[in-house]
Amino acid sequence: MKKCKVCNKPAVYHLTEIQNGQAQALHFCEDHFQEYISGQAPQDEWEPQDEATLIELNSQDLELDEELECPNCGITFQEFRSEGRLGCPHDYIAFREPLIQLL
Predict the structure, then answer these.
(1) What pTM was estimated for this model as a whole?
(2) b (16+ CB within 10 A) / e for 32-71
(3) What is the pLDDT of residues 45-77, one digit of tens each?
(4) Residue 14 sits in which domain range?
(5) For the chain, is the Cβ count within 10 Å smaller at the N or the C terminus?
(6) Do the domain assignments include residue 1?
(7) Nearest to 4 by CA among 33, 39, 43
Protein backbone atom coordinates (compact mmCIF):
# COMPACT_ATOMS: atom_id res chain seq x y z
CA MET A 1 0.00 0.00 0.00
CA LYS A 2 1.25 3.46 -0.85
CA LYS A 3 2.07 5.93 1.96
CA CYS A 4 1.20 9.61 2.31
CA LYS A 5 4.12 11.72 1.02
CA VAL A 6 3.84 13.98 4.09
CA CYS A 7 3.17 11.77 7.12
CA ASN A 8 3.57 8.14 5.92
CA LYS A 9 0.02 7.15 6.88
CA PRO A 10 -1.71 4.88 4.34
CA ALA A 11 -2.53 6.94 1.24
CA VAL A 12 -6.11 7.05 0.03
CA TYR A 13 -5.61 9.61 -2.75
CA HIS A 14 -3.19 9.09 -5.64
CA LEU A 15 -2.49 11.97 -8.02
CA THR A 16 -0.16 12.51 -10.93
CA GLU A 17 0.98 16.09 -11.21
CA ILE A 18 2.79 17.34 -14.31
CA GLN A 19 5.13 20.30 -13.95
CA ASN A 20 7.59 21.40 -16.62
CA GLY A 21 6.84 18.24 -18.60
CA GLN A 22 7.76 15.95 -15.69
CA ALA A 23 5.17 13.64 -14.11
CA GLN A 24 5.23 13.31 -10.34
CA ALA A 25 3.19 10.75 -8.39
CA LEU A 26 1.62 12.18 -5.24
CA HIS A 27 0.04 10.00 -2.57
CA PHE A 28 -1.93 11.54 0.32
CA CYS A 29 -3.85 10.52 3.42
CA GLU A 30 -7.29 12.12 3.87
CA ASP A 31 -6.01 15.05 5.96
CA HIS A 32 -3.09 16.04 3.76
CA PHE A 33 -5.15 15.65 0.59
CA GLN A 34 -7.66 18.16 1.93
CA GLU A 35 -4.81 20.57 2.73
CA TYR A 36 -3.30 20.02 -0.71
CA ILE A 37 -6.48 20.74 -2.66
CA SER A 38 -7.41 23.73 -0.50
CA GLY A 39 -3.96 25.23 -1.05
CA GLN A 40 -3.32 25.75 2.67
CA ALA A 41 -0.07 23.81 2.80
CA PRO A 42 3.14 25.51 1.75
CA GLN A 43 4.35 24.37 -1.67
CA ASP A 44 7.74 23.20 -0.46
CA GLU A 45 6.08 20.72 1.93
CA TRP A 46 5.06 18.66 -1.10
CA GLU A 47 8.46 18.62 -2.75
CA PRO A 48 10.56 15.49 -2.28
CA GLN A 49 13.63 15.83 -0.07
CA ASP A 50 15.79 15.32 -3.13
CA GLU A 51 15.55 14.01 -6.66
CA ALA A 52 17.01 10.62 -5.71
CA THR A 53 14.22 10.06 -3.17
CA LEU A 54 11.54 10.82 -5.75
CA ILE A 55 13.11 8.50 -8.31
CA GLU A 56 13.46 5.70 -5.75
CA LEU A 57 9.84 5.97 -4.57
CA ASN A 58 8.41 6.07 -8.08
CA SER A 59 10.60 3.24 -9.36
CA GLN A 60 9.50 1.02 -6.46
CA ASP A 61 5.85 1.67 -7.36
CA LEU A 62 6.49 0.92 -11.04
CA GLU A 63 8.46 -2.26 -10.35
CA LEU A 64 5.62 -3.71 -8.29
CA ASP A 65 3.02 -2.94 -10.96
CA GLU A 66 5.17 -4.17 -13.88
CA GLU A 67 5.57 -7.60 -12.26
CA LEU A 68 1.82 -8.27 -12.27
CA GLU A 69 0.57 -10.78 -14.84
CA CYS A 70 -2.88 -12.25 -15.47
CA PRO A 71 -2.80 -16.02 -14.87
CA ASN A 72 -5.55 -16.53 -17.46
CA CYS A 73 -4.41 -14.61 -20.56
CA GLY A 74 -0.81 -13.78 -19.63
CA ILE A 75 -0.99 -10.04 -20.23
CA THR A 76 1.22 -8.01 -17.90
CA PHE A 77 0.21 -4.76 -16.28
CA GLN A 78 2.99 -3.07 -18.24
CA GLU A 79 1.43 -4.31 -21.51
CA PHE A 80 -1.96 -3.01 -20.40
CA ARG A 81 -0.45 0.41 -19.67
CA SER A 82 1.23 0.60 -23.09
CA GLU A 83 -1.72 -0.78 -25.12
CA GLY A 84 -4.53 0.82 -23.14
CA ARG A 85 -6.77 -2.24 -22.99
CA LEU A 86 -7.07 -5.38 -20.93
CA GLY A 87 -6.73 -8.91 -22.33
CA CYS A 88 -9.62 -10.69 -20.57
CA PRO A 89 -12.17 -10.26 -17.76
CA HIS A 90 -9.78 -11.91 -15.27
CA ASP A 91 -7.43 -8.93 -15.63
CA TYR A 92 -9.73 -6.88 -13.41
CA ILE A 93 -8.92 -9.24 -10.55
CA ALA A 94 -5.22 -9.67 -11.37
CA PHE A 95 -4.64 -5.90 -11.66
CA ARG A 96 -7.16 -4.80 -9.03
CA GLU A 97 -4.87 -2.60 -6.90
CA PRO A 98 -3.14 -0.64 -9.67
CA LEU A 99 -6.44 -0.26 -11.56
CA ILE A 100 -8.07 1.26 -8.48
CA GLN A 101 -5.18 3.72 -8.26
CA LEU A 102 -5.85 4.80 -11.85
CA LEU A 103 -9.46 5.75 -11.05
Answers:
(1) 0.41
(2) bbebbeeeeeeeeebeeeeeeebeebeeebeeebeebbbe
(3) 555 556 666 656 555 555 556 678 899 999 998
(4) 1-49
(5) C
(6) yes
(7) 33
